[in-house]
What does this fold into?
Amino acid sequence: MSIITSPFRPQGIALAPAPGPGRRPVHYLNAAYGVRSWLLTTDHKRIALLYLVSLTLMFIIGGLAATLIRLDLLTPSNKMMHADTYNKMFSAHGIIMIFFFLVAAIPAVFGNFFLPMMIGARDLAFPRLNLASWYVYVAGAVMILWVIFGGGVDTGWTFYTPYSSKSSHTQVLPTLVAAVLAGFSSVFTALNLIVTTHRLRAPGMTWFRLPLFVWSMYATSFIVLLATPVLAMALILVGVERACGVGIFDPALGGDPVLFQHLFWFYSHPAVYIMVLPAMGVVSEIIPCFARKNVFGYGFIAFSSIGIAVVGFLVWAHHMFVAGISVYAALIFSLLSYLVAVPSAIKVFNWTATLYRGSVSLQTPMLCCLGFIGLFTMGGLTGLFLAALAVDVHVHDTYFVIAHFHFIMVGGTVMAYMGALHYWWPKMTGRMYPEGLGRIAAVIIFVGFILTFLPQFVLGYLGMPRRYHFYAPEFQVLNVLSTAGASILAVGYALPLTYLLWSLRWGEKAGPNPWNATGLEWQTPSPPPPHNFAETPVVTCGPYEYTLQEEAASVG
Amino acid sequence: MFPVPLFPENASTTADHVDRLYFFLLALSGYVALMIALLLIYFSVRYRRRADGPRPPRIEGALRLEIVWSVVPLLIFLGIFAWGAHGYFVLTQPPDDAIEIYVVGKQWMWKVQHPGGQREINELHVPVNQPVKLILTSEDVVHSFFVPAFRNKVDVLPNRYVSTWFHATKPGRYHIFCSQYCGTNHSGMVGEVVVMEQADYDEWLGGHSEGSLALEGRKLFLKLQCVTCHSADSRARAPVLEDLYGRDVPLRDGRTVRANEDYIRESILDPPAKVVAGFEPIMPTYKGQVNEDEMIQLIEFIKNLRAGQTPTRTEETPPPAVGAPAPKKETPR
It folds into this structure.
């Protein structure tokens, strides 16, 4: 592929010389070898890969749990596993996918790898803290795997009291510790990303020249910093009550079970934005690149991230409309939930408008982004149902909720994660993935996803409660449909896992900028040298000047 | 007919309201999702990359468009908010003439007590076309009482009473589900609401009568010696409980509290928590001596206690001998 070096490329970046015979360029992957060079690395790119590998493993384990759940739900009674096993299975699925995959996914892999490169920095502000965050994550992950394979936990990922603090006979305490560790790891990463964005921007990289991915990582990191300690506190209190019998949430000991729900959702609602804001950042990068246009309404997209981060803190009790909160509290939280929907709508409209009069090519990353917009829009629209108090009373804690948040977190975040993986794969590994297979995988994931989760909206409105092992026979047809969709989805996820590994060895060489993208991360060889840039870049224009680049290309 | 049900049965006044809003939201979101999808597809095809295609223009954005697509959704959202809030508000205001039925959730069953003393497990018999108020509590963890056909659900909490109400419009049998995860047999904590014509309902009530809840409560009131202090002839030791329910009670520490189910319950289990003005905190706790079913009977007795109805102590119920065993607790099955 040819490399377009536009005149608008920030000055002073020397592309590494083309590899001559007998002379291989030094990059972050071949700069050092051996286990020590990985386990003791402070290079943000290597740590990102460590995260990528561990997150993929956790995703596979969480996915296997989901597979067993869907298989078990093929029949209303006559089950393949015991009720307790089923309860442990959905708990494992939720805890792994949320605390050990989604929260970390985009920030710890792509934020870690690309945020410094996007702002022209040599590394994150605190490289050793970055490595520490991975170790803390691994400690949590090992702990949760030890729990799951050594007996299991059955509280669900929500740990509602007094069930978790009194009633459950499973390994709740180590699970709480594991979740707290995962939280700490995300706090370390968030701190690093915030400080890096403030302190390490290249000359000329003003706040409004920041790529939108950086804006969304910045907003996400603030949510992580402010919300995660509340979760840690709440989980530690559950542990204290369980271990020492101190009455905090258990009414039999003088506690209040609803207090736990407040504390839990004070983190776990903003956590939804921790999971989806980075995905929005990814989409804001990919769409301009594959439409060859600057993003429509840069300021609106950037500030809607901040708006979501702020208002997202004020809507937690919409998870508790039937939990015995006062009518007036419910009214206020319903209203605020509608306000937080506006910035999300703004983003969707701006992305769509970016395509207008563009030059659109539907390569894998772009297909993933279009899939994201479609599924996220459906997830967001069904959020309007849930925020409507009278409707929520009916659909709360049913499959409607399950479908809604899977549309946001799997249809949205995982789809964008796939997009990011394909978009930046050439930069991370120096190799192209097979484009045809990539497109097929994107389409399979989209179709499988819709088939899996659309029937669940219907199931939810019919009244099938979540976390049901046995269910009424009239729900069976829709459950079978959903399981059929899940098996298509599984193929869709297995495919990239296979061909991406294949491409590491046999993929076409990528070159520094296979997409002709404008971001700083593309103005350096693939894979990047250990310190990213030969010389610190100087930034002279905004992040998405595709029009100017195209003009320069056609002139030159 | 399509072999798969797409909408649940509609058997209450609330269900109509919820369904109308649901269908409106379905139409609205279907329209929006379709528009977005069509736009994405149209743009992707119309502006697909071509070797000789026009260069994309540089469009920064359009302030007017941004304002339109921020303000219009906001206004629509506010409309939905008001619509949904209205239905919720109605759901929290039970009519005064509603029949009051008590429901106790425990791992993993629903126990129901009717005002006439009829008891049932995992079934709830109610008359059609008459409002029914449920007063619910849990013996252990959080449960949730969910009747899809009524579009109604409420979390059932330990150590506290919550209430909801419905007005069934169609005789039949409808699912009750526990919708808040509560452990091993969560999905087995199900039952049925049986909505009956008034005549059938009266017949059912007659066939299951065991003496009213309030009467059972009166017996307990005597048996537990509540009457020793809470009686008209010993005014100085404890307040008389006649016409108490629903009143604002002034407390010793200057606060005022509305006498509802929760207050009565707390005063039985934890008497020093709220002591009525003018009295000393001398009442002992009855924690461990009164189970949830008996608690409901006592509350129902106190709720229905009118002026002059406090029983007097009789020889039929002498004070318990010292060291007598506490009332036997129901053993869970």
Observations:
- Chain B touches chain A through 87 residues (CB under 8 Å).
- The domain at 213-303 of chain B is CATH 1.10.760.10 (Cytochrome Bc1 Complex; Chain D, domain 2).
- The radius of gyration of chain B is 28 Å.
- Chain B is about 35% helix and 20% strand.
